[in-house]
Design a protein that fits this description.
The chain contains 9 helices and 12 strands. Strand 9 and strand 10 form a beta hairpin. The chain is rod-shaped. The strands form 3 sheets. It has a 5-stranded antiparallel beta sheet. Strands 7-9-10-12-11 form a 5-stranded mixed beta sheet. The longest helix has 55 residues. The two termini are 31 Å apart. Helix 5 packs antiparallel against helix 6 and helix 6 runs parallel beside helix 9. It has 454 residues and is of the alpha+beta class.
């Protein structure tokens, strides 16, 4: 399963678009949330500092003696977190009177300062402070921003994690959905490929989800059923026509033979009669082949299977066809499987016909001095019988049509053959559940039939 086929699927592409939208939406929402929480934290801290400022102002209002004010503020400082809070009281000359800050800032109102020189354990920190002048004193209150910054930092990372997590989840869902869709589409493609190769009983599997692809698969199965019924009707009609024509053809053949015997007894020339008889023989063979292909495809031919040795069948087929190849000045050879493990289950008569048709096809279409060979090869689970030649071959776009009944290349329209030899080969291969393929041999043609090991 190619990853490029998955990521280019509609499901993953849709998920990708959705992930981009989700990422942008989460980014905008995260920014608004971050700003909202940051503002709330700052307002909460400012409210706390305002309360502390009022508390010190109340101390100043309640005490007229400066020493009492200083003592009251120092006492109040003890209740505050010493390492995070600032509090200071200064006179108009800038002298520190109370608190834990040595110098007050130069500004008034709200601001931020770094506590350099502040006796807070020697660690520099950023504080938010409120500086006010009240009754001739300068009051400073502040709180460490470390907690706020840490909270905002954690919030920012959490929002980033949520955004990327949602994006990745969306892509993952799209990827998984694309895999499921690709598998269904691949199964559809494989089934249609089987149908195109003649396995008209192949059907698409329909899942329980009843999604769009399942509904399409169900609809296509209905069309395949109709196509199968139409093909069966057409095949039956062709077989019926061939059968009905075969009887009068046989009678005409007998009558012609009687006329031939009569003319021969009178000493007249038999050449016209011989030509007619030859054409009738060819026509009769055509009808018989059509009927045989129909019987095999309809499953009416009994499976008289037995254990067969492909090495032996191939060798005998080559020996029988060598005289025909020599007449055309061709070389015919057999390459057997050296391991000797060539047993399959099959119908011996059909497989002999298959080998003969393949060899006949190569001999008929190859010029003088061509080489034709039949080979038997075996791997772990299959045995392959191939007929390979170095003739002219066929155009690449016609390879899939070679096994169609009555199909002939344009260059062969005037030839004697009827285009049924390879069609019979395909019917026999399908009857044995064997894989039939044709490829260009550069030069020449290679036709292979792959059987299961017995």
């Amino acid at each position: 399963m190619k990853r490029s086929n998955i990521v280019s699927g509609a499901a993953f592409t849709t998920a990708l678009y959705a992930a981009v939208v989700i990422l942008l939406s989460v980014t905008a929402l995260a920014f608004l949330t971050f700003e909202r929480i940051r503002g709330d934290l700052q307002r909460e801290m400012d409210s706390l500092l305002i309360d502390e400022m009022r508390f010190i102002q109340e101390i100043l209002d309640d005490n007229d003696n400066d020493s009492d004010v200083v003592q009251a503020i120092d006492d109040a400082t003890l209740w505050l977190p010493f390492d995070t809070s600032l509090i200071g009281l200064f006179d108009s000359e800038g002298t520190r009177l109370a608190g834990n800050i040595d110098n007050y800032p130069s500004f008034r109102g709200w601001g931020e300062i770094e506590d350099d020189g502040i006796n807070l354990g020697g660690e520099k920190r950023i504080h938010r402070v409120n500086v006010q002048t009240y009754r001739g004193f300068v009051i400073v209150v502040g709180r460490d921003l470390a907690f706020v910054k840490s909270t905002l930092r954690s919030l920012a990372w959490s929002l980033v994690a949520i955004g990327f997590g949602a994006t990745l989840c969306t892509l993952l869902v799209g990827y998984v959905s694309s895999i499921r869709t690709y598998r269904k589409l691949d199964q559809i493609a494989k089934t249609l490929n089987k149908v195109s190769k003649g396995e008209v009983k192949a059907r698409l599997s329909v899942g329980k989800n009843n999604d769009q692809i399942d509904r399409v698969a169900r609809l296509m199965n209905g069309h395949l059923d109709n196509l199968t019924a139409l093909m069966s009707t057409t095949r039956s009609a062709a077989a019926a026509i061939a059968h009905d024509l075969k009887n009068p053809l046989t009678h005409a053949y007998i009558a012609l033979q009687e006329a031939k015997d009569s003319l021969q007894s009178d000493g007249q020339s038999l050449e016209p009669i011989d030509k007619i008889q030859s054409e009738l023989d060819r026509l009769k063979w055509t009808f018989e082949t059509v009927l045989r292909i129909n019987r095999i495809e309809e499953g009416n031919s009994p499976k008289a299977f037995s254990y067969l040795n492909l090495n032996r069948l191939g060798r005998e087929a080559v020996e029988n066809m060598i005289p025909l190849a020599e007449v055309k000045g061709q070389s015919l050879s057999f390459v057997e499987n050296p391991s000797g493990r060539t047993l399959i289950e099959g119908d011996e008569g059909m497989l002999k016909q298959l080998c003969a048709n393949l060899l006949q096809n190569s001999i008929d279409h190859c010029p003088q001095h061509s080489n034709v060979r039949l080979t038997v090869e075996q791997d772990e689970n299959t045995i392959t019988l191939s007929v390979v030649d170095d003739g002219p071959g066929v155009p690449e776009n016609t390879l899939g049509k070679l096994f169609v009944p009555f199909y002939k290349l344009e260059s062969e329209r005037s030839s004697v053959g009827n285009g049924l030899g390879l069609a019979l080969v395909k019917a026999i291969a399908d009857h044995h559940s064997a894989l039939l393929t044709a490829t260009n041999n550069s030069p020449g043609l290679a036709v292979s039939i792959q059987f299961e090991v017995a």
